[in-house]
Amino acid sequence: MVVTAERTPLHDEHVRLGAQMTNFGGWVMPLQYSSIREEHRAVREAVGLFDLSHMGELRVRDENLAQRVVTRDLARLRTGRIQYALLCNEEGGVIDDVLVYAVADGGFLLVVNAGNQDGDFGWIQAHASSSSSASPSGEGQGGGAVLNVGRDWALVGVQGPRAVGLVQRLTKSELGGVKYYTFIEGKVADVPCVISRTGYTGEDGFELFCGNTDAVRLWRALLDEGEADGIRPAGLGARDTLRLEAGMRLYGSDMDSHTNPLEAGLDWTLSLDKEFIGRDAIARARRSGLSRQLVGFKMLDRSIPRHGYALVKDGRPVGTVSSGNVSFTLGYNIGMAYVPPALAEPGTRVGVDVRGTAAPAEVVALPFYKRPHPK
Q1: What does the DSSP 8-state code read for residue 92?
Q2: Of 310, 327, 306, whose CA–CA distance to 319 is shortest?
Q3: pLDDT at 370
């Protein structure tokens, strides 16, 4: 059976702009419009515009259910605030990494990865009690305790040092009070939006949720108003190089259902003093010690590390590259890899097997890049 990839409400805009399209997580998405280097630099130096409408959104109305499936303690997460957290299986493996929004009418909105949204929905729904998930709903897919609403919404990312000023010119809402990992409701270019301040690039900016039918109007308004700022539409290629520089994990590459969050350096996403699915397995792993952990490394020559390449030490394989690419900001090539804890100290020299040659590399602290803060 042939499965057709889904399209976002902005698909025709990408085609109109000459984007090179690709299949990502079951969605037809822009890989790049001009070049990955140019789009990457636009985000670091000016402002970039991303279509993120492929991401999933799950509405979890039952707080007890949310507490059970999410690794963070949500008890103190007040309306308008956001947390980064994980969904784990019983063995402590990462099912997905998510953003948890505490919404005004109670419960939570989970923003999940594109290719995982239906699986995440089914998994959470399976853990809902029959009494809380039995009543049907006309909103999205599902009913009662959890709803799959992602295909009803579009999502646009505006990222870069000029992003805040750009969005502020298009809204009457005061954005100075929207701190990092918070959100408000308002209008941008007269489009009703949820205005969120998180990001996946290492730069400041906003994510704008709106209805599908308003997506094109919002996208064009941002491009028009941002022309003087040097705005560029940016695709998945730049999004990947930007998030790698910022040391942000990519689900499916840097972690998966067989990865313990402790191995991935995500200890801070775990509230081990509360009950959640996978907690006991994670606690056992902490007591017994880890056999591997995720590290950053930089290449000492011009070789480019790629996902799946082996790391070697003294002629022996010692790990695997989970993410690797060119760094357009730093001027050298970088990657992340899983290695034994004994090799995780910054300054440790390793080799990356690039087509049979052990290219020299050095373990470094994450993140590779931190945006400069204005004085």
Answers
A1: S
A2: 310
A3: 96
